[in-house]
Each structure stands twice: as C-alpha cells, then as structure tokens.
Specification:
Elements (H helix, E strand, L loop, with lengths): L1 H5 L13 H24 L6 H7 L6 H12 L8 H11 L13 H13 L2
Length: about 120
C-alpha cells in the first residue's frame, strides 16, 4: 500500500500551441500580395521613353536644333556598343553648333543619326 501512496496521479494533457494555422494565413497573404504585384508589374501600360520620342521626332530641316537635340537626348542611351558611334556623330555635329547661321545637315550625317536612332530599343 505504501507503494500506491507514493505513486503520483496522472496529470492532464499538456496544451500544445499549434501555429500552423497562423503560418498558413501568413503565407496565403504573402502569396496574394506577390500575385497582385506581378499582375501590376507585367500588365500595366508601359510608357515609352520620352527621350526616345524626342529623338525620333528630330526635325532634320533645322540643323542647329537637330545637332543640339541629338547631342542632348542620345546620351541617355549610351552603352559600350554605341558610344564610339555616338561620339563620331557628335564630332560631325560640332560644326552645326555655336554659330548664328549654319548650313543644312549633310545626308551622310542624317543617315548616321537615323541609324543610331533605329538601333535603339
């Protein structure tokens, strides 16, 4: 009998907190936000680059405006591949800048400018 008195009574079950539901809700909300972000990123209207529009609308009849416009707007599209070509064109356009009256652009220069603009995105 002494042994029975020494035995402790069985304790009730310990309560274990389960966080799986909260983890599931967090992941569901995260997935929802990610899907919404991707939808807005890929399906929104992409505005064209304003500098590219200005380059495409250069008026070749006004050589001074063309020289300044090309020099200003084309530099936003420079990379290693087209830098030398850009510098070559700018060097040719120097004679149309900084003077009150200038001649019309040469057809070769116009073709180079059009080729540069055509090679852009």
């Amino acid at each position: 009998m002494d042994l029975l008195k020494q035995l402790k009574d069985i304790k009730p079950n310990a309560e274990i907190i389960d966080y799986q539901f909260y983890i599931f809700i967090f992941l569901a909300v995260l997935a929802f936000v990610l899907i919404i972000y991707l939808i807005f990123k890929f399906f929104k209207n992409k505005r064209p680059n304003p500098y590219l529009i200005k380059l495409k609308n250069l008026d070749f009849s006004d050589s001074k405006k063309t020289a300044y416009g090309f020099t200003e707007y084309a530099k936003y599209f420079l990379n290693d591949e087209n830098r030398k070509f850009y510098e070559e064109i700018v060097k040719e356009l120097e004679k149309y800048k900084y003077k009150p009256k200038v001649d019309n652009l040469e057809s070769e220069t116009i073709n180079k400018i059009k080729k540069f603009i055509g090679d852009l995105k």
